[in-house]
Design a protein that fits this description.
The chain is mainly α. It is 74% helix and 0% strand. Helix 2 packs parallel to helix 3. The longest helix is centred in the middle third of the chain and has 27 residues. The protein is globular and about 40 Å long.
């Protein structure tokens, strides 16, 4: 059984930081970075759940929904992720996106 705790913690931490960020920070790119991350996490989850099927793109629900979108996508990925190395890679992707977002 794969321990996905590091992934869900990283996603939850980033989401909490986004929720606490001022609107100006979200407008300066943090929300866009979060949406990009949510789309990547959702793409990975869909590829594992439906191999060979073109992944659907997560819609832009607005800057105030970005934290919820990464939470949903990250937790969806955690349910289907196959191995520890995949968890480590996903955590790295989340942490890098959080650094770029500046939150």
């Amino acid at each position: 059984m794969v321990d996905t705790t590091p992934l869900t913690r990283a996603v939850d931490h980033f989401a909490d930081r986004l929720r606490a960020a001022p609107q100006s920070r979200l407008q300066r790119g943090a929300a866009a970075e979060a949406l990009g991350l949510a789309r990547e996490l959702a793409r990975r989850a869909q590829a594992l759940e439906e191999p060979g099927v073109e992944p659907r793109e997560m819609p832009d629900a607005g800057m105030f929904a970005a934290a919820d979108q990464i939470t949903v996508a990250g937790h969806d990925l955690a349910v289907v992720i196959p191995g520890d190395a995949d968890v480590d890679d996903a955590v790295r992707v989340v942490e890098e996106a959080q650094k770029r977002a500046g939150v």
